[in-house]
Design a protein that fits this description.
50% of the residues lie in helices and 14% in strands. It has 20 helices and 14 strands. Its main location: membrane.
Amino acid sequence: MLIFGLPIALWTLLCLMPAGPANAETLQVAVIELEGFCMRDLHGKWVGLMPDLVRELGKELHFQPNFTLVADGRYGAYDEKNDTWSGLIGEVYHNRADFAAALLTITALREKHVDFSYEFMDTGLTVVVRRPRWKNQVSRSITFFLGVFDAGVWCASFVIFALTGFFLFLNDRYNPREFRARQAEHSARDTSVSHALLAQMNDFSLFGSLYYTISTGCFQGYRRSPKSLVGRCLSAFWWLFVCAFAASYTAAFLCALVASRGGLERQFGIEDIPELNPVGTDAFKGATPVWFPNSNTHRFFKNSQDPVMQMFYRQYMAGLNKNSKLANVNTVEALLELVKTDDRYFAVMESTMADFYSRYSGCEVIAAATLISDNSYAFAFPLGSKKLRDVNKVLLTLRESGFINKMYRKYFLMDHGPCWQSVPPAETVAMSLAGEEMARMFRSSLPLTLHSFSGPVLFYFASLLLSAAAALADVYIFTRYERYKQGNQPLQNTAEQPERAEQLPEPEASFGALRFSDDQQQLSP
């Protein structure tokens, strides 16, 4: 009896045990292949967010999922004439699948034909655009550096340069203090009076004065410098003007470089569009939105009363009339390929897909703006399905426990995307917008006009008055000194002094005369 009773007891125990995967019910689960959400690995196994979530439901509800790929690759489009559905909704509606596990948004039209589970993930509509690329539209001419200042500034600067050289020439010829100081300097180096006077004239001839004005800013500039008070005042005020000119030119030249910088081929907004009025969406007016035709997104834009959404719908219909190929964009790959190849188009898709493809598309697309954020994803079941209640309980448990968020981070937020280490797209667009705004501001301030540069010009002409006062001081000091000298020393025989007009030879009217003072020591007395 013991031998026959043991097998019976074991059989009874096995019958009382809960059903395992081997004898679990098999459910047909309709899916759509979408990278990150539902895809096959190298061994043909279904992996992704949806398969993991469905398998977890199977563990709790004791069923074995059999994933079947929808034939047309669509989520669901309603045919009003035939009262039929295509895509995932059609598989459930026609009872070819026990339920559909995909990124299905809940809408009133779909709820009339299928039952939805509790939401397992929140989503919204996001604008996806091609990452802005730099277009170098700069074509600087050979006279680009002259465009920093307008003609008035250049003319005023040249006039000031010429006046400085001319006044230094007059100072050397007619200021007795300058003449006497330079004569003493040359006489100390040359015993010949005629050679000393000739070198003195050539030091600050008209050309020599202009050369001194140009070269004194160099480390190896003109060797001579004015000795009188008025000459030194002219030199000091001239170089104060030069410093202001150089600083203004440097700043304006940098502004010109920034103002002529290359720009982004298209700059889309990065703010939430519902908070903007239609006027605030100018960046989207020149482009055509694209989404899946006859989809839930299409019906949303068609029925929306929001002015911005109506603008998008009109742009889409206008683009559809111009390009009939938009009606054949039925997959995410085709949608993104259109956006990548032409910046005149931007895609409108769910935010979860936008997050994924903005990270894993080779940094070619970015999520630029959020349209709405009040949609949710759920599983679709046939009307009156008995499994819906149990699935809802498990979905709530998985969502509250954080299992769904964990799976989402596993496939979408892990630190292995090619764009992970790059600057976030929103910050990239924001920085480029700031740079373009700065360039626009600089363009409005260029070229620098004479009115803007009037400060240094007026300062220089005011300094001429001070130089005139210094000239009077030079004459007064020289006169008082000569009177004092004549009052304390006996008069010399002026007949022995050669007349200045007779002794001074005619200077050579060329820049070659500038080298005369350097070679004067080679002349024989």
